[in-house]
Structure formats: structure tokens, C-alpha cells
Amino acid sequence: MNAYLDLYTSFFRIGAFTFGGGYAMLPMIQKEIVEKHKWASDEEVMDYFAVAQCTPGVISVNCATFVGTKVKGALGAAAATFGVISPPLIIISIIALVLQSFADLPVVQHAFNGIRVAVCVLILNAVIKLWKSNIKKALHIIVFGVAFVIMFLVKLSPIFYVVVAAIVGILDCVIARNQGRKAGKDA
């Protein structure tokens, strides 16, 4: 029962204390999952982020489902998923009740503008952490650069980038393996 409660409360905190959507939640998800509870490695979390981005739904909900499944199966997935969606449901319900009367106030509009800036900083922080832990070879930089440029030139589904990057990674592995075998034969 403790593991289910841990999953629920950890993801409840993620849902309650991170603002700005899925990408803004990535640093807190990484801190809770990898650093605090050690439910997954950095590499596994990156895989969760990649798959969560490609599957329908919200990244944080998808990540919660993946982590919960890994830790405690289907019931763990339910606990983690319910944990991450509970705070937004509560907060949105409260905001919906009162926002209509305050939405047009200049102070509220300025507050939203400030929040958007802070969210950009949180997303940039997540990108920098992901870069440091995953961009390790020249090939990674090339894939990143090509994907980044194509993203601005052509509007494609995120699935396209993930699938192509996966294919490039597999080809890199096959080529490295074949070069290793060839070097072994030559020795």
C-alpha cells in the first residue's frame, strides 16, 4: 500500500507544483522519479518522455502511467495517473468558478504574461538538462540540428522526429556492431 501512496503523492506534487504544461513538468518528474525515488534511470525517463510525446494524451499523464506500471503494474499506473491529474482537476474547477469575474483585469493579464515567461525558463531548463545527459556523440548533434531545422521549415508530427531518430540510432548501432566485428576479424 505504501508504494501506491508514494506513487500517488509524488505525482500529486508534480501535478500541483508545476505550472505550464507537460514540458514544464519534466524537471520535476525527473527529480521525483530518478533522484528522489530511484524508480527509473535518466535513460529510462528519457525513453518515457519520448514515448509520452508520441502517444496521445498529456506528457505528464503518460509518464505517470509508464512509471506507475513499472513500479507496481496496472494499479501503480492508476495511482500515479490519478495523482498527477487530481491537482489540475481541483485547481481548474476552482479557477473556472472565479476566473470569469477577474479575467479582464489588467493585473490578471500581467500575471499571466509573467507566468508565460517563467514557463519558458522552466522548459529551457529541461532542455539543457536533457541535452547534457543525452547528447554525447557528433551523430546526436547532427540529428538534433537536422530535426531542429526541419521542425521550423515543415510542420510534421512529433512522431516523425522520434521514429526517424530511432531509425538513425538503430542504424548507428548496427554500423558500430559491424565495424566491431570487422575489427575483430582483422586482429
Describe the structure.
The protein is built from seven helices and no strands. It is mostly helical. Helix 1 (2-17) crosses helix 4 (59-102), helix 2 packs across helix 4 (59-102) and helix 3 (42-54) packs across helix 4 (59-102). The longest helix has 44 residues, at 59-102. The protein starts with a helix and ends with a helix. The mean pLDDT is 85.
The overall pLDDT, averaged over residues, is: 85
Globally, the shape reads: globular
Structure summary, number of beta strands: 0
Alpha-carbon distance between the termini? 56 Å
List SSEs in N-to-C order.
HHHHHHH
Poorly predicted ranges (pLDDT <50, ≥5 residues)? none
Q: In percent terms, what proportion of residues is strand?
A: under 5%
Percent of residues in helices comes to over 70%
Number of helices: 7
If you compute it from the alpha carbons, what radius of gyration comes out, rounded to the nearest whole angstrom? 20 Å
What does the main sheet amount to? none
What structural category do the secondary elements indicate? mainly alpha
